[in-house]
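By way of example, what follows is a protein record of this kind.
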Amino acid sequence: MTSGRLAAAAVLEEFGLPVTIRDLPVPEPEQGEILVDVTYGGICGTDLHLQQGHLPIPTPLTLGHEGLGTVRTLGSGAVRDALGTELRPGDTVMWASSIACGRCVPCRQHREPTLCEARRTYGVNRPLTEGSGLAGAWAEAILLHPGAVVVKLGEGVDELAAMSLACAGPTLVHALYERRPVRVGETVIVQGSGPVGLAAAALAQLAGAEKVILIGGPRPRLDLAAKCGIGDHHIDIVTGADPERALDEARALTPSGAGADLVIECAGVPAAVAQGLTLARRGGSYLVVGQYTDSGDTLLNPHQIVHRQLDIRGSWAFSGAHLVEYVRLLPALCGRFDLRSLVVPFPLADVREAMEAVADGTVVKAVLQTS
């Protein structure tokens, strides 16, 4: 049943085509559902890959797997957030993008909901042919289904700051809490200075790393990270003509020049993996987070893995529990880092310009604003 209202939504009609704005019917929530007026929908690098068809998703669909908004209407029965707080109209909330099925082998036996074989993900695999189509955050409204992990934001949390790492933050909570935690006093090198890399650097600092070295670019992006307090050293590997020089500079900043205790790959560029193997100390760890979409093969020297006796781990996406932890950490993150300065809002109608700004790197984090 619809409410009679329409909501504007940014829709991916076909791969490779520009996103269009459509008016979609706003549904009345049924039992256990939540209708949210979206305030901000974040643009993630993955969204650019989706638009180009780099992942097999159904179209047409409303894009946007990270968002923040205000509860408008609740379905019948008491609806609570992930911490047990009863939700009411007017509450400001964030929600996890995916709902795990709870029945497949990864969910039931391996206790790995991020690897669920039947994950339903807002803005990724919920096409317009299902229901109203308001199942992505790039819209004026979104319908959240039973099983969605929803978290009410605390009083005083800056909404734009919360959106700065809305996807990257929970992703790195998963990576750094469960896959390979940062240990107090470690030297950490982060490859990549987009939101994923900045989340890795900020959380490593918060976890007690003695030194965090950020390798990325271009230089204005690194300068902004430094201004926001993220990372102790900032090395440009994008602008310079000789990447090896940048890698040597990073190694020289590690104890005795022997390499980092932990290297975190957040660049999303396959060639970065071969470089990252050479940045860890012997007996160190390499955590690969940024290769979310298949960007192709790369050449690497396996001797670097054996000679350095590296512990190599991958980390995929995040679950609702990781979003809960990210929201809990927001006061600490905002108290130490100027996250709000990373974000540039664009009107929903300017979605194409916002995507271009993300693609060319002129903004670190773009969000679509509906009002």
Observations:
- The longest strand covers residues 2-12.
- The two ends are 25 Å apart (CA to CA).
